[in-house]
Design a protein that fits this description.
The chain is of the alpha/beta class and about 400 residues long. The chain has helices at about 15-20, 25-35, 45-55, 70-80, 95-105, 120-125, 150-160, 210-220, 240-250, 255-275, 305-315, 345-355, 365-385; strands at about 60-65, 85-90, 105-110, 135, 165, 175, 175-180, 185-190, 205, 290, 295-300, 355. It has two domains: about 20-250, Aspartate Aminotransferase, domain 2, CATH 3.40.640; about 255-385, Aspartate Aminotransferase, domain 1 (Alpha-Beta Complex), CATH 3.90.1150. It is about 40% helix and about 10% strand. The chain has a four-stranded mixed beta sheet, sandwiched between helices. A hairpin with a 2-residue loop joins β6 and β7. α2 (about 25-35) packs antiparallel against α9 (about 240-250), α4 (about 70-80) crosses α5 (about 95-105) and α4 crosses α8. Bound molecules: pyridoxal-5'-phosphate. Pyridoxal-5'-phosphate binds next to α4 and α5. Pyridoxal-5'-phosphate binds near residues 93, 94, 168, 189 and 203.
Length: about 400
């Protein structure tokens, strides 16, 4: 394990430039158009992007905002989530899923995951519904949808609205229905590492209800209508016209990007199986009901070998990441909620075992071979040191 000097060029976890470079001229032209128009907010490019995203999500409404985090906050505000309300969400997710809940004084109720998909376990959701539950936020982690049929059925049974955190899952589907279109409101992010990544922050909310849509729009603009008359206490959360113009260029390629990610995922699976490595760690599980868009390619490395493997890859110049090392129920800021180690065993185990490997549309076969060879060397060294 010690002689892990780089033998080939480094493989970055993600290289956004490779996706953006071929579109540079088009992107620069679209930025110039905004600069010349002087309409830096509410330019027509924002509405154009909203239309395209609504088309992808198969929703009648789409409302741009400043980030995926704001989309979640605005969605909860639109549903009138109040101080003391309970909102069921996973702990195995990015912080924004739960911070939006806390920001409103509401209580995130963290429930455990299905260990195969890392998504909310519907039975755990059902078991945690109380008379105070005012929303459920399933997250479509890594680009694969949660069990939306079951989660929506629970919501319908108890009249609890569903907010989908689809930040990692634009274009994903579950039973042929797009991510974002299952719940009452779907939230998207255009953070640069997402499948539709901007050049800065950006987000969007999608829904099928015109009243909800109008409320989301009002809340995102200080609850102001008409100018200087405030109906609600909202926030200021807008998508810059420049950002929309950039995203309009990139969104034309989204489907192709997703197909490339899926073919890389398929090839990883073949390479790992071909090298006899799939017995050492778990490959990502794909539910037959889902169209996975592979925002992340995550393996599950048991036996305490995740961190040594990650170190070995880092030493070889191969990028990897741990999404997420500390589940939200064990975060310092949520200490007062009263969770402790052992409360959500499946989530905690995933945090110890997950390892995210490079996957992005422009990843080359050679780079993939390097990643697989690096992992192979790790296990070869691990088993020979065990034998010795
Ligand atoms: C990225 C992300 C967000 C937040 O999106 P931002 O645009 O970065 O604010 C929320 N939830 C999940 C699951 C995410 O991955």
């Amino acid at each position: 394990m010690s002689n892990s000097k780089p033998t080939s060029s480094p493989v970055p976890l993600l290289d956004v430039n490779r996706g953006n470079r071929p579109l540079r001229d088009q992107i620069m032209a679209s930025i110039a158009e905004v600069v010349d128009s002087g309409r830096f907010l509410h330019g027509p490019q924002v509405g154009e992007l909203e239309c395209t995203v609504a088309g992808i999500c198969e929703t009648s409404q789409a409302i741009a905002c400043a980030s995926g985090s704001d989309a979640l906050l605005l969605a909860l505000m639109a549903l009138d989530i109040q101080s003391g309300d309970e909102v069921i969400c996973p702990s195995f997710t990015f912080f924004a899923t739960a911070s939006a809940v806390s920001r409103l004084g509401a209580i995130p109720v963290f429930v455990d995951i299905d260990p195969k998909t890392y998504n909310l376990c519907p039975d755990e959701v059902a078991a945690n519904v109380t008379s105070r539950t005012k929303a459920i936020i399933p997250v479509h982690l890594f680009g694969q949808c949660a069990s939306m049929d079951k989660i929506c059925a629970i919501g319908a049974r108890h009249r609890i609205p569903i907010i989908e955190d689809a930040a990692q899952a634009i274009g994903a589907k579950y039973q042929d229905k797009p991510a974002g279109s299952w719940g009452d409101i779907g939230c998207l992010s255009f953070y640069p590492t997402k499948n539709l990544g901007g050049m800065g922050d950006g987000g969007m909310m999608v829904c099928n209800n015109q009243i909800t849509s109008a409320k989301l729009r009002l809340l995102a603009s200080h609850g102001m209508q008409p100018r200087y008359y405030h109906k609600l206490v909202g926030i200021n959360s807008r998508l810059d016209t420049i950002q929309a113009a950039i995203l309009n260029v990139k969104i034309a390629h989204l489907q192709k990007y997703a197909e490339k990610r899926a073919s890389h995922a398929q090839r990883y699976a073949e390479l790992f199986a071909g090298e006899g490595l799939s017995e050492y760690f778990e490959l990502p599980y794909q539910t037959p009901e889902a169209v996975h868009v592979w925002n992340q390619y995550s393996i599950r490395v048991p036996d305490g070998l995740r961190d040594p493997l990650r170190k070995h890859l880092t030493d070889m110049g191969i990028g990897s990441e741990v999404y997420y090392p500390v589940p939200l129920h064990l975060q310092e800021c949520f200490h007062d909620l009263g969770y402790f180690v052992g409360t959500l065993p499946k989530t905690e185990r995933a945090s110890r075992e997950i390892l995210n490997l490079p996957i992005y549309p422009e990843l080359t076969e050679q780079e993939q071979d390097t990643v697989v060879a690096g992992i192979k060397r790790f296990y070869a060294a691990a088993s020979s040191s065990k034998a010795a």
